[in-house]
Amino acid sequence: MKPVKVGIAGLGTVGSGTVNVLQRNAQEIARRIGRPIEIAHIGARRPNPACNIDGIRVSADVFELARDPELDILVELIGGTTTARELVLTAIEHGKHIVTANKALIAEHGNAIFRAAHERGVDVAFEASVAGGIPILKALGEGLAANHIKWVAGIINGTGNFILTEMRDKGRDFAEVLKEAQALGYAEADPTFDVEGIDAAHKLTILASIAFGIPLQFSKVYTEGISRITAEDIKAADYFGYCIKHLGIAKDTGNGVELRVHPTLIPKEVLLASVNGVMNAVMIDGDAVGPTLFYGAGAGAEPTASAVVADVIELGRALTVDHDERVPYLGFHADAMSEMPVLGIDEVECSFYIRLHVQDRTGVLADITRILSDKGISIEAMYQKDVDDNEPVPVVLMTHRIRESAMREALEQIAALEAVLDDIMRIRVETLDA
Amino acid sequence: MKPVKVGIAGLGTVGSGTVNVLQRNAQEIARRIGRPIEIAHIGARRPNPACNIDGIRVSADVFELARDPELDILVELIGGTTTARELVLTAIEHGKHIVTANKALIAEHGNAIFRAAHERGVDVAFEASVAGGIPILKALGEGLAANHIKWVAGIINGTGNFILTEMRDKGRDFAEVLKEAQALGYAEADPTFDVEGIDAAHKLTILASIAFGIPLQFSKVYTEGISRITAEDIKAADYFGYCIKHLGIAKDTGNGVELRVHPTLIPKEVLLASVNGVMNAVMIDGDAVGPTLFYGAGAGAEPTASAVVADVIELGRALTVDHDERVPYLGFHADAMSEMPVLGIDEVECSFYIRLHVQDRTGVLADITRILSDKGISIEAMYQKDVDDNEPVPVVLMTHRIRESAMREALEQIAALEAVLDDIMRIRVETLDA
């Protein structure tokens, strides 16, 4: 089947991430859509060493893409609102479907863009414009579509969240942490957009429209930044049981919608309070589902590309499949299922927690550790509780990673030791590192 | 436009929740789809006082629905795998699209059901079968479709998580907490399905297929329950910096897939460790997006109905809209946007954190509290730090809920007091209660 032809306008951080994801996962993506994606045209003034575009047509003028009759989809990643707006409207005029990561463009010009797209019969997808890799617009507009949404509250600017997290963890003041964030590349030289909440206000505008079915109204968002927060405030909030987060909040009060971005005290025990560093998270409270939370990376080349390419896949599916199975039942097409084997539990490798009770006599621990070591199992941590004489002694240990089968054999031998008093508890350990 | 006609088979907890959500949010749902949903036929042996089905055709034999030529969609909520399988296959034969919340049915008979549906050209949607109201299948199969999924790890059984949370918080043993869970209605009289991990294994089977594009293979899931975990283990894990959760884990190791449900130690600082009580959460690690987490209610009438009705909306949209705009750009159709006003910040009501520095002299606090009280602002908590003589004294207070305008006026008056030394910090407080 003929590939879905995509043009990518802009080859900066997100553009190169998009090229890399489309190339690296080309096979899996084709299994999901039913046919391959081809990057047929790139619009960029210069190549980006972060990706390989050998053999792909490149135009310095991005408007060449808008007019390219070959393209099914134009991916707008040039940023800004002036040229980007013109580019998107020109591409729509030429019948291209649009994917964009541009929150300012959608928040400020979305109403006009959607009107034009509707007239021309094309789709506009912008999942990447809010909270980067988190599929939050899909969750809100489709996954939770049964609900009357009561409110949405999100940490939707990673720079601001990084700064507030550092201020809290290290007791340092705003200006100092901002410098560090700039050195690490988390904050721009001119940080206004992030720390004064304009970026978050763009995203909140989009979230609110999808939550409540209201037009995009960026100019009506109340916006307050975090630059006035002091280390003293963070400490005082903590004293009262709160932490300070920079939130975007959209709430249906029954007689109107609140749209506001500002520093906010939230109770330390709510999940949102545990979202730290550059990570983003959005809470949604729906009348049927209750409180939900969606967490992930809100920025960066590949997390943003994850959302851009998801939109490309969605449009690719719509251009490909029959009505009966718009999204394949199991995400991948039935004739493209993998025969990857399911491994038996003996082949699984992880760390283990082991707890047993032994008689308090010399040599028992030596026996246990010898058996473990014979099976190649090394101990990461251990403790043995002091108890009264002649009481069974609890021994608890954590091992390094080892195959399940080795652990099973070792535990069988340990269980056979005379000094081991009852069943041994064995629980697997996962650190859930990315 | 003629409504989308839906038949609901089964009027238990989830069935009545589905009726209630479809009725209560009928207007918003119609704005999302472009035409209304009509519950045209219910299959139930008896009415359920939890919902009102006046005027709706009811059949005691659910197979009447499968054969009803009026219906576009059959919603299967009878549970079990024998009759449910036959019902779904019969409805597919008669050209109905299917929505189901039945994890056992999909995990054990999904491959055959999808084959039949594909041949007949109908869709089968089952978002509610995994993690209740969390739109996790959509996130995995669509929102994160650009990624090669590395692993999925989830708390996907609320009963088990409630028991482990109680054991940890109260230092109590399994058997005792299980009884409490049964009394609260969180655990069945026969709790095997939940606490031995069979329910979680059904859900993991479905998650793994969508993550990796492998056929549903329920029989290959390794399953271990939580009934052997003791209070001693939970305490020992805590000592090492871990907490114990009952996880379903699906991992692509590169030479096969691990599918396993078992108690797991996870570091206390990962977000999943903060998911407590009956709540569910699923972590997904994708090669582009990195770690993500999706949190919400995993069971209950309306959270499950939220997912059932989202699937009905999705099918309703597919049956309604033209290709250009399968999901409306902003979730709601352009001609159905709300004119709900956006409120000014002065109309917003919330609690406030106030921090200021004052001269250490008699009467200052009295002045401040008088101004607040004149504006109807009451103080929830307050502290004043001891400092050396003649130093500025920091005063921090938290108020009860009050309109922004009243607070602004009060703060203007307080700022004008001679004893108030510098800018007053005012931060809004949100408890994020559902």
UniProtKB/TrEMBL annotation, chains A, B:
One of its GO terms (biological process) is threonine biosynthetic process. InterPro entries: ACT-like_dom_sf (IPR045865), ACT_dom (IPR002912), Asp/hSer_DH_NAD-bd (IPR005106), HDH (IPR016204), HDH_cat (IPR001342), HDH_CS (IPR019811), NAD(P)-bd_dom_sf (IPR036291). It comes from Isoalcanivorax pacificus W11-5. It holds the Pfam family NAD_binding_3. NCBIfam families: PRK06349.1. This is Homoserine dehydrogenase. Belongs to the homoserine dehydrogenase family. Keywords: Amino-acid biosynthesis, Methionine biosynthesis, NADP, Oxidoreductase, Threonine biosynthesis.
